[in-house]
Predict the 3D structure of the following.
Amino acid sequence: MRRISEEEARALVREPAERLMPRAEALTLDGFGHGVSYSKKVFVPLTRLCRDVCGYCTFARPPRGGKPYLSIGEVLEIARAAAAAGCKEVLFTLGDKPELRYPVAAEALAAMGHATTLGYLEEAAKAVRDETGLLPHLNPGLMSAEE
């Protein structure tokens, strides 16, 4: 596969979408062909809380009692069952920094020794990797350069 140069990439960004899309498709097919691959994965909803309120989202929920986060034990239980079923990845799903909106989230994190959801996500991902060998696949939302 030929990698495009930085100059070519910058030129593509300036193209209107109707010319960019066919070029992007050609580059993709040139590099990867028509094959489609996938990795069997399990979704692990680390938390369904989110600081945002998006009208289209069907995932996030406001706190309604119960635990705001899965425990590491619950995460590993899901991951072990997934490994036994032949999965290769654990896709962590979660809302964006719920501790900034909901005190219950911040309190739960503090009780688990974390200041942020990202810190807890890191612990959960390492536990999955170390205990099951599955690939942790993270989708944590907006992050700063430091994060």
Notes: The radius of gyration is 19 Å. Strands lie at 41-45, 89-93, 135-138.
